[in-house]
Specification:
CATH architecture of the largest domain in chain B: Alpha-Beta Complex
CATH class of the largest domain in chain B: Alpha Beta
Oligomer: heterotrimer
Strand content of chain A: 35-45%
Distance between the termini of chain A: 41 Å
Number of domains of chain B: 2
Shape of chain B: globular
Largest sheet of chain A: 5 strands, antiparallel
Chains: A alpha+beta (about 80), B alpha+beta (about 350), C alpha/beta (about 375)
Structural class of chain B: alpha+beta
Distance between the termini of chain B: 62 Å
Radius of gyration of chain B: 21 Å
Chain lengths: ~80, ~350, ~375
């Protein structure tokens, strides 16, 4: 659990539905459980969006990885 | 004297399968005009053909694809391309075809005509003549609109030896273009999955590409068109038949973005999606660049690329190396790929 | 592709692997469980198992809702599908799961049952509106990631006042299963030193739902995404916690998972579902408060009530050891029928037929190809 993948919202249709795009392939999904707008990325699972991707968080985590690697290489040079 | 078929509103009923006047009409008015050639036009019981010198190569396929019309092709053109390609994979020149139709009652004549036109065009494009055709009609529900069985006859000249048992350690594995286009396009067109896309099947005859490859003077050892079961199944079969191992680089395999997207959305693997206009070729490492160049200079081989090599480790027929050093086994497709949830 | 490619970056992956190798040094090694079937699949698909240092062992968890469903419920599904006038809708994963005597939904279909594979429960509702003369039954399976979709479908059906739509509800919950795994450790069976927490279940229930893991069992848990960088980073975090003697809940999937999860989804599920007092799980037996059924208010849509479903005392195939695999007590390759009598074409148990199942993943992607 579970196959779910980040896709970009390209349109909103009525009644909490929207269209998402992944690599040029589109599908209509339910947006009832997320607050998402056109241009946002959502995680789609069995035809519904279960979470909105936080781009800021994504950027932050990626830079954290880089930092962690730097810090620990520093530590290795000075084993305590 | 029977009336001409009402091509606009008419449809097939069981009388068209009885072998009488009505059946002949189907062949005469719908299929024959599109397949027209001196042999077929004689309308004999059997086609008499002068075969050139060389060894006869024959391939038969049955086609039951649904939907019968899909982006980039239909069951008819698929049948022609498929059998032509199978013969070409043996290094043979495809020459003639024989086709059989099993038609569900209720199918409109206009649908059959569309298929016939498409098949005629595909046959001319591939340079083959359809020398024999047969139609049968079955009750509603006994066939999913239309099933086609196609057989292609070709000739392989002396000195050309292509076979799945010829792969040797050190050889290079080349694919002629992006994989999975057909499988993904058909899935994306299945109404119940609700996907919208521009994806098109890659369905095409590649016998002309094969001719160019053989003319280059390279020792083309193996060729296979990765249809049902995709690239993964074809490479597994070759490795097993040749008693070798094959290793391919994930990063080298061309996959169109849309094909990848369909696979991700449904939890499937493009390595198992059918290709209907591609071929995989195996040749000695010393010939690889030359073969690649000859393929790339042909319009149907523009996207050709080396994806891996043959090893002397047959215990695992096919291994996929990831871009970051990991590797995993790629087994033969088991059953149908079912979209996952999970 | 955005939000995917960055997490498959070779350089980052190689450096994370080097980091793990450097820090995973304690003599007794690290036995880590990835709870979620999606993570199991990802480990095999990216060939990560062959790259981890010898000291780190990944043990597969029960997070495969297809695998944990007991045979008696599969048999019930097959019986429902075979009923006259029924259109039985199911996710693709469930179609080949064998019930008693190998009877599966796909076999039932071959024998004439109208079984349809659907991608979303909302599609089942559509089918019901288009086929008013048929009874449409949706086979609802899944953990908390999937239950909200069922809930949305149910609400839609209720709004449309459909009288030909019902749900055969088999939704199960993650925390009780995780507790059962941790209890194994307390009862002297093989333990795990750390857990990789499910990514998308957590998007729904929130990272705070796992506090009990640290508090009750003093085991670290790191919530992970599904890309190679996510998984390796989570392993690194677990190794560090274990080395430091810490037992904390960490969320490394912050781009998708929040502490409080998805409140809209949680509220919706609380409205349409009720806890079952007890539910049978393959591998764990009966677990209390571990599964959901439709709330009384929605009883009209409950297939178990509408069709008066009864359950046989059904048993797993006698050679099947899915139960142990699901509890992380046995690796797939250690099962005597793995890849012999039990294969994806002829599965003896669900673990071999669900592609999230540990056995299916091990079979398709092969035994670990050690570098």
């Amino acid at each position: 659990m579970c196959l779910a993948i980040p896709a970009r919202v390209t349109a909103l249709s009525g009644e909490n539905m929207g269209v998402v795009d992944l690599g040029g392939v589109e599908r209509e999904v339910s947006l009832a459980l997320v607050d998402a707008d056109v241009g946002d990325y959502v995680i789609v699972h069995v035809g519904i969006a279960i979470s909105r991707l936080d781009e800021e968080e994504a950027k932050r985590t990626l830079s954290l990885f880089a930092e962690l690697n730097e810090i620990s290489s520093g530590e290795d040079e000075n084993p305590s | 004297m029977s009336r001409k078929l009402d091509m606009e509103k008419g449809f097939v009923d069981l009388s068209f399968g009885a072998g009488g006047v009505a059946s002949a009409q189907l062949t005469r008015e719908i299929f024959a005009p599109e397949f027209s050639n001196p042999i077929l036009d004689r309308m004999e019981d059997g086609a008499v053909i002068d075969m050139p010198a060389g060894r006869l190569v024959v391939s038969t396929d049955s086609h039951v694809i649904s939907p019968i019309f899909f982006p980039g092709g239909d069951i008819g053109s698929l049948a022609i391309h498929g059998s032509v390609n199978d013969v070409a994979m043996m290094g043979a020149k495809p020459l003639h075809m024989s086709v059989g139709f099993i038609i569900e009652e209720g199918v409109p004549f206009s649908v059959l005509k569309r298929i016939a036109v498409s098949m005629g065009a595909a046959a001319r494009d591939a340079g083959v003549t359809i020398v024999a055709a047969d139609t049968k009609v079955v009750k509603k529900g006994e066939a999913d609109q239309l099933y086609i069985t196609s057989t292609c006859f070709g000739v392989v000249p002396e000195g050309v030896c292509v076979g799945a048992d010829r792969a040797r350690p050190g050889d290079r594995v080349i694919i002629s273009g992006s994989i999975g286009d057909h499988g993904a396009a058909v899935l994306a067109s299945r109404e119940e999955l609700g996907l919208t896309s521009d994806l098109k099947s890659d369905s095409q005859s590649v016998n002309d590409l094969v001719a160019a490859m053989l003319a280059s003077g390279v020792d083309v050892r193996v060729m296979r068109d990765p249809t049902r079961g995709g690239l993964a199944t074809s490479l597994n079969e070759i490795a097993t038949t040749s008693a070798v191992g094959i290793e391919i680089d994930e990063g080298a395999i061309p996959v169109k973005e849309g094909v990848w997207a369909v696979s991700e959305l449904l939890g499937l693997d493009p390595l198992y999606f059918a290709c209907e206009g591609r071929l995989v070729a195996i040749c000695p490492v010393s010939d690889a660049e030359k073969l690649l160049a000859s393929m790339r200079s042909h319009p149907k081989g523009k996207g050709a690329t080396i994806i891996g090599e043959v090893t002397d480790r047959p215990e695992i027929p096919l291994i996929l190396r990831s871009t970051f050093g990991g590797s995993r086994v790629v087994s033969v497709l088991t059953g149908d790929q079912m979209p996952r949830i999970c | 592709m955005k939000f995917i490619d960055e997490y498959r970056d070779s350089a980052l992956i190689k450096s994370l692997l080097a980091e793990i190798a450097q820090e995973a040094t304690r003599p007794e090694g690290y036995r880590l469980m990835e709870f979620c079937g999606g993570h199991t699949h990802a480990f095999y698909r990216y060939g990560l198992l062959s790259l981890l240092p010898e000291k780190v062992t990944m043990v597969h968890g029960p997070g495969c809702p297809v695998c944990v469903l007991p045979i008696s419920r599969i048999d019930a599904a097959v019986r429902l599908a075979a009923k006259e006038g029924v259109i039985f809708c199911s996710y693709g994963d469930m179609l080949r799961v064998p019930g008693t005597d190998g009877r599966s939904l796909i076999r039932a279909k071959a024998e004439g049952a109208d079984v349809r594979m659907i991608y979303s429960p909302l599609d089942a509702v559509k089918l019901a509106t288009r086929n008013p003369e048929h009874q449409v039954i949706f086979f609802a399976v899944g953990f908390e990631t999937t239950a909200p979709a069922t809930a949305l479908a149910l609400k839609q059906a209720a709004e449309l006042e459909l009288n030909n739509f019902s749900i055969f509800c088999n939704h199960v919950l993650t925390p009780p299963a995780m507790r059962a795994i941790l209890d194994d450790g307390k009862q002297g069976r093989k333990t795990v030193d750390g857990i990789i927490g499910p990514g998308h279940v957590s998007a729904i229930i929130g990272s705070s739902a796992y506090r009990f893991v640290a508090e009750e069992s003093q085991i670290p848990l790191v919530i992970s995404g599904f890309e190679p960088v996510d998984l390796l980073e989570s392993i690194l975090m677990l190794v560090r916690q274990i080395n430091d003697g810490r037992a904390e809940i960490e969320n490394r999937y912050t781009r998708v998972v929040r502490a409080k999860g998805n409140p809209q989804a949680i509220t919706l599920m609380q409205e349409v579902f009720e806890l079952r007092g007890s539910f049978e799980w393959r591998g764990f037996g009966h677990l209390p408060d571990s599964a959901q059924k439709l709330a009384e208010k929605y009883a009209d849509f409950d297939a178990e009530i509408r069709f008066q479903i009864e359950y046989d005392q059904a048993h797993d195939h006698k050679a099947c050891r899915c139960a142990e695999v699901l509890r992380g007590q046995l690796q797939p390759e250690q099962c005597s029928v793995f890849a012999k009598a039990c294969t994806p074409e002829n599965p003896l148990g669900a673990c071999m037929v669900s592609s999230e199942g540990a056995c299916a993943a091990a079979y398709s992607y092969g035994s670990v190809v050690r570098q």
